[in-house]
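=== RUN LOG ===
request id: a7f3
mode: sequence -> structure
chains: 1
length: 429
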Amino acid sequence: MSLDLRAGPTVAPSTRALAASRALAVRETWAAVVAAGISLALGLYQLGQPSLWIDESYTWRATTRSYVALVHEHHWIYYTLIKPWAAVAGTSEVALRLPSVLAAAAACALLVPFGNRLLGKPVGSIAGIALALNPFVVQWSQQARSYTIVMLLAVCSTWAFVWMRSRDSTRVWASYTAVLILFVLVQPLSAGLVAAAHFVAARGMQQRLKVAMAGVAAVLLTSFFLLGVAERDAKSGTLVWNTDPTPWTVSRTLLELSGAFGVGLVLSVVAWRIVKRERLLLASWALTPIALSVLATPVGDIFVDRYLLVSAPAFALLVAAALNVLRRWWLAGAVAAFAAGTVVGLVIWYSPDGSRNWRGEDWRAATRYAMQHGGAQVYPYWTASAYRYYGGVQRKTGLYVIWSEDPRFFAGDWPLDVGFGERLRAQRR
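=== RESULT ===
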């Protein structure tokens, strides 16, 4: 009897399977780290250069108010968490914006394991990177607002929904409800849009009933907060300041959410046509928030592109699903087009000199100019927090710092007229 020394030691199938599972887990972890790293790098680049815009100044203003005064703000939990953060990190532009950068990176990382479990490997890994590269996501990761935190909650709540859909358990339903409650307290409008998408994507009446019950429970348990938000919005909030959607704004939003300057939208359509797995969930998550925002127009103008950032992860999953099924020259062409579109979008976003914010305003320079001339009065009054953030003092010197979206507002003969962007002027009567 001869002994074959070339043969290796016999390994039990269970051990081999365990080793393979660990290797896959390591690769998935590294994919999540890469996605988060790309998101962090793009989010941190030029983070402190643009001046705060008006809404970001409200975030700073929240750090100066009491916790009780923040209860009925639309972004209650976000503001409540920003206060202790600012006490430690400070209130510089970078410090105020950093939580949004971190939230975007977390969403990209979380999309990796979620996408792999939902659509199979390596779809999640591709989706995490696609989301990190989306110029629209990068833009809102660099704002001191809650929108990327809301996007992270959209991923978390959808994962909880998929878990609830696969298990008939009160504990699992309670977990989904708890995520919805947190979602409502951070941003009720976005929470409602995502929950509606889950309702559409549910399989059968029993699952839809579970989603509906979770939504009702979330509304009832947060009713004290929602009533205050509704009262505030009726006077001066979302339903007052937003405008009606148009074919141009809707189509532009679809391009922004899907990424890569329109290439993402083409790949999403490809995925809808050839990828059957979870087609309803992905289509509902991507399109229901947009459709409801448009349909709600007779009641209130809630269609704003940044409110719909919750759909960006769904588009990233669709892009990844399409890239996963394409082969050879089709795949090479799709990757090249997606990369080119992404580069163009990022170059456009980063192209300004860095002093003006995304709305083309430079409150930092306008405030400095006003203070060099003894101070100014700010009009309209609700924009004054941006002026105060940069150390501006309101004084009756005849100089006005004026913000307006209508260029005609600045018309007339002024002894002094200095522009700090299309919407911001210093004028002396």
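=== NOTES ===
Residues 421 and 428 are 17 Å apart (CA to CA).
The radius of gyration is 24 Å.
=== END ===
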